[in-house]
Design brief:
Keywords: Membrane, Transmembrane, Transmembrane helix. By secondary structure, the chain is mostly helical. The chain has helices at residues 3-34, 39-51, 53-80, 86-107, 111-128, 145-162, 164-175, 180-193, 195-222, 228-249. α1 (3-34) crosses α6 (145-162) and α9 (195-222) packs across α10 (228-249).
Amino acid sequence: MNLLLLKLTLIPTIVALVTLAIRKWGGKIGGLIGSMPWVAGAILLFFILEQGKAFGIQSIQGSMTGIMALITFCLSYAIFARKFTWLPTLLIAYVLYTLTAVVFDYLRLNLMLSYVLVLSYVVLTLYLFPSPTAPPADGRRLPFDIPIRMGVATLFVLIITGLAHVLGPNWSGILTPFPILTSVLAIFSHTLQGSNAAIVTLRGLVMGLLGFTTFLYLQAHWLPEFSVATSFGMAVVINAFINVVVGKIW
């Protein structure tokens, strides 16, 4: 199948299904589902198909930096969502995301240390995360909101994968967990249901990053030994298992 056609069909389908999952099961479960490697895993797959397996493996170190920045995005959006509307909240969260990415990229930590730091940061963030002051409000739905979400997420993926050969594996990896789906979910939850809904959804996403980070970490070790399908398949099962456990603990 043509890769462009795959991008134009796979990514919007993922966004639509995650959106429907949130509507059916609520922010926490929806956030856990949304944190699975649907978009970032697809981006890694496109890196491998377009730039080669070595490029994809090298990008994983950068992805750890990107996850650190993503956690900062989620925490900062949740904190400022109570004070501001979605646009200033999003801009503040993007600024803090960028600062985190730049700092950790400068430190150039090895993969194992980065993995441990990300897991520690997730746990710390869950303890610092603001609690909703009330149950999320029953939200109105904008006309064509699912197609809008699908279009925004697909555009981001096309840009990131299209620039991969220019950015190189490190910055391509950093941008792999860029809050594409996260931003879409946060904005729509915040706008349609209020800050409490955004907080619940983002907390669920952060919870799911324990499994998602493990998924990417395992790719660095398994992709050299196994086919892409086998490596991704085994890691997705482990990712899902971790999400189930985390969902019961928190």
